[in-house]
Design brief:
There is one protein chain. Helix 7 (133-161) packs antiparallel against helix 13 (303-314), helix 7 runs antiparallel to helix 14 (316-329) and helix 15 runs antiparallel to helix 19 (464-499). It is globular and about 80 Å long. The chain has 20 helices and no strands. With 527 residues, it is mainly α. The protein has helices spanning 6-28, 34-41, 50-62, 66-73, 75-95, 99-126, 133-161, 166-169, 171-185, 203-222, 232-254, 268-297, 303-314, 316-329, 334-352, 365-386, 395-433, 441-458, 464-499, 513-525. The two termini are 24 Å apart. The mean pLDDT is 78. The chain is 75% helix and 0% strand.
Length: 527
């Protein structure tokens, strides 16, 4: 295969990294805008979580199929089609006028975006000679770090200075340029799509996967508000989840072309690693979801300040990921990194649970540094550990499935955290209101002070008492949610504490240098 040279190679590097950054950026750019989107669309903060989870669910569905779809349609055609779909969906996300319209287009955006990362990486690596691929890996690693890091900052700047819809519309010119450059400079791979006639698409498997994930996700998101299993809707979702999961497992075990190779769960090492990957995804996505909402609602940070407070610590990952990757490539065992990462996450959750309402953006710097260290020490070793007991021909499937499970853990984590925060806020509000009584001298003192202040400011002496009650009610609600967010940080720690003992049940089969190289190569080629 003739590889591009000079300017053509430079354009391919820019195009593929830009596409990957764009996909990763959209996983975090929304986080700092949730309050603004919630207000503009008249949605509750509980329902607005679907804007994030719909994108994650779409990624869960499409990630394990990217290799197959690239082979079926031809890699360049699939890459172009995904990019165009991502751009079209971004436009309609920005034009959405209702929450559920936005949720639908975020799902479509996730279908298009799910292919961009792994396909971009494969195209980039093909542009380099084997001996130069560490350089390509370095370029791509920078993109992987920059995407999530720049998302909150760019999102905050756009929301503060323009309109929330611009966080989606900014993708369109980038997509147009990337499509043109792909058409002109990226060649088709030899034999691309030639085997299409001999390939079968597992449509039923795809449908059952969507039903299973969708049923569980909806049940977790709406269970509290629908009064759980007293609701017919929740019972239907539970049936779809259980029935869909059973049917999906049966289908994937009995079809010649499964959309997900679940047979590798027979490997105990892979199964145990997958459990930790699920929990790792829960911790990663939950902490990034709760933090922006809390600091904007409670601490009064602007979206831009929120983004900056997330970005600066994240750059630590630029140094940690290569260091950990180099250590693993030289034969270092993943287990010590995983143990350290879990312990750091436990500390992070408890420190987050002790946050105060008067903290500024730099006061959150230490806990965010801990989050990045925990992510770095847990995520990369988990990929290595997950495939440690697999056969070489199973590496690609194992890594794709690992990434799917991480996204799944994130989607479920957001749903659980959202539900948990809502439940705890209601409980805290009830507890706080128990002290708001006429017999409480502190309440009477606060009430009289607010009433007098309102009477002086508005001149409406007759309504001063009513306005004072409203002010106190708003303060109680704000305090209740503040306490609930702190509880949610602690929940992350508790989950990692519960799973920590099981990390010592993982056994890492010994691998020689060639096996390690194959694992790293599969890691590079699978999203």
């Amino acid at each position: 295969m003739e590889r591009p040279q000079g300017f053509a190679k430079f354009i391919i590097v820019i195009t593929t990294i830009t596409a990957a950054v764009m996909e990763l950026l959209d996983t975090t750019i929304v986080n700092v805008a949730l309050n603004q989107i919630s207000g503009a669309l008249g949605a509750t903060i509980e329902d607005i979580a679907w804007v994030i989870t719909s994108y994650a669910i779409a990624n869960v569905v499409i990630i394990p199929m990217t290799g197959f779809l690239g082979e079926y349609f031809g890699r360049k055609n699939y890459y172009l089609g995904s990019m165009i779909l991502f751009g079209i969906a971004s436009y309609f996300c920005g034009m959405s006028e209702t929450l559920w319209e936005l949720v639908f287009w975020r799902f479509i955006q996730g279908i298009g975006g799910g292919a961009l990362l792994s396909t971009s990486q494969a195209i980039l690596f093909d542009a380099f000679e084997p001996e130069d691929r560490p350089m390509a890996s370095g370029f791509f690693g920078m993109g992987i770090i920059l995407g999530p890091s720049l998302g909150p900052v760019l999102g905050g700047y756009l929301v503060d200075n323009f309109h929330w819809s611009d966080i989606f519309l900014v993708n369109i010119p980038i997509c147009v340029i990337a499509v043109i450059l792909t058409l002109v400079y990226i060649d088709r791979k030899e034999g691309e799509g030639a085997n299409r006639k001999n390939m079968a698409i597992d449509y039923l498997g795809i449908l059952l996967l969507m039903v299973t994930v969708g049923g569980l996700q909806f049940m977790l998101e709406k269970g509290e508000s629908e009064d759980w299993f007293d609701s017919r809707l929740i019972n239907i979702c539970a049936f779809l989840f259980v029935g869909g999961l059973a049917a999906f497992i049966y289908r994937e075990l009995h079809t010649k072309s499964p959309v997900v190779n679940i047979r590798i769960f027979q490997n105990q090492t892979f199964t145990m690693s997958s459990i930790f990957t699920l929990v790792g995804g829960f911790g990663l996505f939950t902490s990034v979801f709760v933090y922006p909402i809390m600091v904007q609602r409670i601490n009064g940070l602007t979206p831009t300040e929120t983004g900056l407070s997330l970005m600066v610590p994240t750059f630590l990952g630029v140094f940690l990921f290569p260091v950990i990757g180099r250590a693993l490539s030289k034969g270092a065992k993943p287990l010590p990194f995983m143990v350290f990462g879990i312990l750091i996450y436990i500390v992070f959750g408890f420190i987050g649970g002790e946050s105060t309402s008067d903290m500024g953006r730099w006061d959150f710097f230490p806990m965010q540094m801990l989050r990045v260290i925990g992510v770095s020490c847990l995520q990369m070793p988990l990929i290595n550990q997950a495939v440690a007991g697999l056969k070489p021909q199973e590496y690609a499937s194992g890594i794709s499935l690992t990434n799917m499970i991480r996204q799944l853990g994130g989607a479920f984590g957001i749903a659980v955290a959202n539900n948990y925060a809502t439940t705890r806020a209601a409980q805290h509000r009830s507890d706080l209101l128990a002290n708001v009584t006429a017999e409480n001298p502190l309440f009477q003192q606060r009430f009289q002070g607010i009433a007098q202040s309102m009477a002086q400011k508005t001149g409406e002496i007759a309504r001063a008492g009513e306005m004072a009650y409203k002010q106190i009610d708003m303060a109680v609600t704000k305090q209740a949610y503040y306490l609930a967010y702190l509880d949610t940080f602690r929940l992350v720690s508790i989950i990692f504490i519960l799973i920590f003992p099981f990390v010592f049940l993982i056994r890492t089969p010994k691998k020689d240098k060639k096996d390690i190289e194959k694992i790293l190569k599969a890691s590079e080629e699978a999203h």
